[in-house]
Specification:
The complex is a heterodimer of chains A (338) and B (790).
Chain A lengths: L1 H17 L3 H12 L4 H7 L6 H38 L18 H15 L3 E2 L5 E2 L1 H4 L25 E2 L4 H10 L4 E10 L11 E11 L4 H16 L5 E8 L2 E11 L7 E11 L1 H11 L10 E8 H8 L7 H4 L2 H4 L4
Parallel strand pairs in A: 1-4
Antiparallel strand pairs in A: 2-3, 4-5, 5-9, 6-7, 7-8, 8-9
Helix pairs in contact in A: 1-2, 1-4, 2-4, 5-10, 7-9
Chain B lengths: L1 E3 H4 L10 H10 L3 E8 L6 E11 L7 E6 L6 E5 L9 E5 L4 E2 L3 E2 L3 E3 L2 E3 L2 E2 L34 E7 L10 H12 L13 E3 L3 E3 L7 E7 L9 H9 L7 H13 L3 E5 L7 E5 L5 E3 L5 E3 L5 E5 L4 E4 L3 E2 L12 E7 L2 H11 L4 H6 L7 H14 L8 E5 L8 E2 L2 H7 L6 H10 L3 E2 L4 E3 L10 H12 L17 H18 L3 E2 L5 E2 L19 E2 L10 E2 L4 H13 L4 E13 L7 E13 L15 H11 L5 E5 L5 E9 L2 E9 L1 H6 L6 E7 H7 L15 E10 L5 H9 L5 E10 L11 E10 L8 H15 L6 E2 L1
Parallel strand pairs in B: 13-24, 14-17, 28-32
Antiparallel strand pairs in B: 1-12, 2-12, 3-4, 3-6, 4-5, 6-11, 7-8, 9-10, 15-23, 15-24, 16-23, 17-20, 18-19, 20-21, 21-22, 25-27, 26-27, 29-31, 30-31, 32-33, 33-37, 34-35, 35-36, 36-37, 38-40, 38-41, 39-40
Helix pairs in contact in B: 4-5, 5-8, 10-11, 12-16
Chain lengths: 338, 790
């Protein structure tokens, strides 16, 4: 009897060894261990085995079953390994990727956000105002006389209502000072409009960022420290920043700010990036008149203001040669900012 | 404003100053240097050469091989293409090593196999004004071998931008005065003019507010002719054209002193000069030929006959000016009130070097000095100088200004000492008075307040010498901050969803109105038009962002880009009451999707974006909201719908009309959305509280249904929305099938399959419970007209 078990085992192991895939291996398992399998049938014969041999026969059966099961498992693993290898072979990693749509923020958004983030680190909060403005907020309150060259229909868009499209975001300064309590520490990014023909360096609608700090002891060192820090953050801490005296109706003294731009392979050059100055007392006086109080008494309160062109900063940052690229929205341009 | 360095040097010694140094000084004093142009020849290596021989080049028809004498031991062989010279002429020769304007360095070369050791030059090639074609032929007496630069004057032209508060700088003497202050060097002293004036009956000022002071000088026996060489040279050095000896003198004095003058032909003036307001509607013919209809606000110089001789301070009349036949003149030098000149110059759109100075304010003291200088130059010693007739009184000199030292030092961060600050004011021509006040020179009427003096001190001191202070106060977050942050979140989501952010011009054209998709329909008069647009393309404040995106998408289509997904955020504008109410500004978000959903690839079939792609973007933009489209008819668009987040309408959805797509050459359907950004900002906030994860497994059941093809899916969603089945936690539509051929299902039916997910919070559901719940759902769905289960 034991030889019979031994023969079954030998045949079974041969079958298993011969199995070439999952299916033939399963057939082998069924033919040996299945209900009608050779080993199962042999096992069923234990009832005919004399009592004193039953133990030995049982042990022989168990040994055979263990050997077959283990062979099956081994073969199973070997087959899986072959299958895994087959599944991984012949794959061309160098085929292009499956496309995933890619988008991007507009460069103006990127530069504006960078500026906003730097200024927020310095404690500036955002402010805003209408783009369709009145003459008071755009000019009168900003110490710009009624016959100032900017205030004509050649340079400024007017409406039949007498309103106009703000020529600068400085109008937001006025709106903030009309209502705010001290200290005022705000920035206002936004659109401004000038009646310029659109060409490589001009847009009739462009983007500015305005800043204002008004308190009891705001000085030129504050103005200088703030804007130097800003442009160092923007263009790198080693970038040289210079302040040139200039004239604006609403600040005095006034300055234009240049940074020294280093472009690889080019001689460094100074580029104008912003205007700034100490708020002119006449601006405080005009706003006090509408506020009907003396919160902005220029004997006690000082402030500085600054403004910069975001389109221009973007052009400098990314060496954009034609400002129209910023409004044409050619995806070949926009995708460079992805 | 053009300044000649040679002219400037007549006022102060600049011999040891570099042009870059002078340029820097101006820059840091607030005078922007916009250009520096050298005139004349820079290089020493351009010398006088005589052409000894010129023979035909063996290998080039148009070239000659010349032998030239440059005063060296041997003749020099140079290949030359010019035709205008003859052998024996003297011409400029650039020797090897010479640098020509534009930075081009001459070397020894071989031209078509013939050696050439230099270059024979034309006038413009060596930095002189362009002359005849070909080589510059030099005078016969030019010494051979001498640098050509010694034969020509050289000068540097500075183009300076003077800010509007500094009219005192609009002349060479004014610029020299500023430069002397900056350099701390003295001006070259000149014999002082002390002209007398004679009060006159032949000048009548009827408008003393506009013209407080007027002088006129009658100069007889003049001859109008060409100006002397020195005068022509001065004017050409700053880019002016010489006209005649009279006009040139007035121009010279204007650019020397800053006081505009005007010469009338005395023969054309009848009786006294009258300074008067124009009559309403009075016509004036300017010397440039233009005719202007004046108002009573405009100031005229006329005569007793009433004829308008000049538009005061702006431009002379065509009929009263100096001509070749003029034999006597009346020379005007006056003080006109700036505001008046500004108004008239702007209204008539006439501007001149004169109006430019009068409208900024001239130095009253210079009025008579300028007249005296001009008379001196016109007479030129040929007769005794005539007297200057005057009327009116000069404006009062500027009032003294108090300098508050404490405020000065605080503003400058104690970076300058009081003596240094006072020295700056003194150098600028101010004079210290007792008790902290300063007398202001007549040419600095812009200095009126404490802060004006502070500006002068700061300007000369330089911000470079002021310390930096890094100190801030805290500012509370504003509503605008919150809106800004929300917008950035939305922008980043859209970019992550594969959309490109755009920026378009907020002024649009009438023709673009066909594409608008405003949140609320526009009434007549709601459009806000600018009064004087630059062009028809930019005439209306956009009531919707979509037109800008449509035009950007069109541009990309023309560039053969076939997958277009764009968005823009920003202001939109409308009048709230047909033009009668306030103009309103609000913030919107627009999205445009057209063309392939992705770039062509081996791994993904090309698919043209449909409305569900845009709907998907909207859903992904607001993942915590149920975004639905509720069909709502609109004119001029197809498939229009309200975009809903829950019950709230947040925007408008549409497809462009197919005809419009064809008209604009869009090859694929264009899907559009415009959303109310104010509402979106409130919908993107994170949940206030997280939900517990389910503790027990759920189970799902599918249902395949058939409904009439024209029944919208929303009927099913509405029914499910109304169901109050506590065990139903979610459902999804996972299949849709139609068969227009009618073979598999009737052509007027569609098959739609949903999966329903059931779960209880507190236990594992028994099969029977799930079946019962599912049965309740099916019963509800079964009430939809025409719905059958498959």
């Amino acid at each position: 009897m034991n030889e019979h078990v031994s023969t079954i085992q030998t045949l079974a192991l041969e079958l298993i060894a011969a199995a070439s895939d999952e299916r033939t291996l399963d057939e082998a398992r069924v033919s040996v261990l299945g209900k009608k399998g050779t080993l199962s049938l042999a096992g069923a014969a234990i009832k005919d085995v004399p009592g004193d041999q039953k133990a030995a026969f049982g042990q022989a059966l168990n040994t055979a079953r263990a050997a077959i099961t283990s062979a099956l498992e081994e073969k199973q693993n070997a087959l899986l390994e072959i299958a895994d290898r087959a599944a991984l072979s012949g794959i061309d990693l160098t085929l292009p990727a499956r496309p995933v749509p890619i988008g991007a923020l507009h460069p103006l958004t990127l530069i504006r956000d960078e500026a906003v983030q730097i200024l927020r680190r310095m404690g500036f909060a955002l402010a805003d105002g209408p783009e369709i403005e009145d003459e008071f907020h755009c000019f009168d309150a900003l110490n710009t006389p009624a016959d100032h060259p900017a205030r004509n229909e050649k340079d400024t868009f007017y409406f039949n209502s007498g309103k106009l499209l703000r020529t600068h975001t400085s109008s937001v300064q006025v709106r903030m000072m009309e209502t705010a309590t001290l200290p005022i520490r705000i920035i206002a990014p936004g659109s401004a409009y000038r009646r310029d023909e659109i060409d490589a360096t001009h847009l009739s609608v462009f983007n500015q960022l305005e800043g204002l700090y008004v308190d009891t002891d705001v000085t030129l060192p504050d103005l200088k420290g703030t804007l130097e820090y800003f442009f160092h953050e923007m263009f790198g801490t080693t970038t040289e920043v210079r302040f040139r005296p200039h004239f604006f109706p609403f600040t005095e003294p006034s300055f234009e700010i240049d940074v020294k731009l280093q472009v690889k392979g080019q001689a460094p050059r100074w580029i104008e990036v912003a205007g700034c100055g100490i708020v002119d007392p006449a601006v405080f006086e005009a706003i006090n008149a509408t506020r009907k109080d003396r919160v902005l008494d220029h004997g006690k309160v000082t402030g500085f203001a600054f403004g910069m062109g975001l389109d221009r900063l973007a052009m400098i940052r990314w060496a954009i040669k034609d400002i129209r690229l910023l409004i044409e929205n050619d995806i070949r341009f926009l995708s460079q900012f992805a | 404003m053009n300044i000649s360095l040679n002219w400037l040097s007549t006022h102060l010694d600049l011999s040891d100053k570099s042009i870059d140094g002078i340029s820097d000084l101006f820059t840091f004093a607030g005078v922007e240097v916009e250009g520096i142009t050298s005139r004349g020849i820079a290089s020493e290596k351009i010398v006088v050469a005589r052409i000894i021989e010129a023979i035909q080049h063996p290998n080039a028809d148009r070239l000659k091989v010349t032998q030239v004498d440059c005063g060296e031991s041997e003749l020099r062989q140079i290949v030359c293409g010019a035709q205008n010279y003859k052998v024996g002429d003297k011409v400029p020769c650039a020797l090897p090593g010479a640098v020509l304007p534009g930075g081009f360095t001459i070397g020894e070369t071989v031209m078509r196999k013939v050696e050439s050791k230099g270059m024979l030059c034309a006038a413009e090639e060596i930095g002189l004004p362009k002359g005849e074609d070909g080589l510059l032929i030099l005078p016969e007496d030019s010494p051979i071998g001498a640098p050509v630069k010694t034969l020509f004057d050289s000068d540097v032209l500075l183009e300076l931008e003077v800010t509007p508060n500094r009219p005192d700088l609009l002349s060479h003497s004014g610029m020299a005065r500023e430069l002397a202050t900056l350099l701390k060097t003295p001006l070259i002293s000149r014999p002082p003019f002390k002209p007398d004036t004679i009060p006159s009956d032949t000048i009548r000022i009827e408008s003393p507010d506009s013209c407080p002071y007027y002088t006129a000088t009658f100069i007889a026996d003049i001859e109008v002719r060409e100006s002397p060489a020195w005068l022509k040279e001065r004017l050409t050095s700053i880019g002016l054209r010489s006209i005649n000896n009279i006009v040139d003198v007035t121009n010279y004095v204007l650019h020397e002193i800053g006081q505009p003058l005007h010469a009338f032909d005395a023969a054309k003036v009848t009786g006294a000069l009258v300074v008067r307001q124009a009559k309403e509607g009075e016509a004036f013919k300017a010397l440039d030929g233009s005719i202007h209809i004046l108002t009573s606000d405009d100031l005229l110089i006329s005569d007793e006959s009433g004829a308008a001789l000049a538009l005061a301070g702006i431009m002379g009349g065509l009929d009263s000016g100096v001509t070749e036949s003029t034999t006597s003149i009346l020379l005007e030098s006056a003080y006109f009130t700036p505001a008046n000149i500004r108004r008239t110059a702007r209204r008539t759109a006439l501007s001149s070097d004169s109006s430019y100075r009068f409208e900024r304010g001239v130095d009253p003291v210079a009025v008579v000095q300028a007249a005296a200088l001009a008379i001196h130059l016109i007479i030129d010693g040929k007769c005794s100088e005539p007297g200057i007739q005057s009327a009116g009184v000069l404006p009062e000199p500027p009032l003294p200004v108090f300098l508050d030292l404490e405020k000065l030092h605080r503003l400058l961060g104690n970076s300058i000492s009081t003596p240094a600050a006072e020295d700056i004011l003194t150098r600028l021509g101010l004079e210290k008075l007792p008790a902290g006040s300063w007398r202001i020179p007549t040419f600095r009427a812009d200095l009126q307040r404490h802060i004006d003096l502070v500006e002068e001190i700061t300007r000369i001191h330089g911000l470079a010498n002021v310390p930096s202070r890094l100190q801030a106060t805290f500012a509370p977050t504003s509503e605008i901050d919150a809106a800004y942050d929300a917008d950035m979140i939305l922008r980043r989501r859209l970019a992550a969803l594969g959309l490109y952010e755009c920026q378009t011009i907020k002024l649009i054209a009438d023709s673009q109105l066909a594409d608008i998709l405003p949140l609320r329909l526009l009434q007549d008069g709601d459009l806000i038009r600018v009064k004087s647009p630059l062009s028809e393309d930019h005439s209306i404040m956009r009531p919707s962002i979509v037109p800008g995106l449509v035009s950007s998408a069109g541009r990309n289509v023309r560039q053969q880009i076939n997958s277009i997904r764009l968005f823009e955020m920003g202001r939109v504008f409308r009048n709230a009451g047909g033009g009668k109410a306030l103009d309103q500004e609000s913030d919107a978000l627009a999205i445009l999707v057209t063309g392939n959903t992705n770039s062509s690839s081996w791994a993904a079939k090309d698919r043209t974006a449909d409305l569900y792609d845009l709907k998907g973007i909207l859903s992904a933009l607001l993942p915590n909201q149920t975004v639905t489209l509720k069909p709502k008819e609109r004119e001029n668009v197809a498939l229009s719908a309200e975009i809903k987040a829950g019950d709230q309408t947040i925007g408008v959805f549409a497809r462009m009309l197919p005809k419009r797509e064809r008209d604009l050459d869009f090859p694929n359907p264009v899907f559009l959305a415009e959303l109310d950004l104010g509402k979106l900002r409130k919908l993107i906030s994170s949940p206030t509280q997280t939900a517990d994860l389910p503790q027990f497994p759920g189970s799902s059941r599918d249902a395949a249904m058939e409904i009439p093809a024209d029944t919208n899916n929303c009927r099913i969603e509405e029914a499910l929305g109304n169901a109050s089945e506590p065990l139903l936690v979610s459902y999804e539509c996972f299949d849709l099938f139609i068969d227009p051929s009618g073979r598999k299902i009737a052509a007027d039916r569609k098959s739609i399959a949903y999966r329903f997910n059931y779960r209880a919070q507190d236990r594992t559901l028994k099969t029977a419970e799930i079946d019962e719940a599912h049965e309740r759902i099916l019963e509800l769905l079964g009430k939809i007209p025409g719905l059958t289960f498959r």
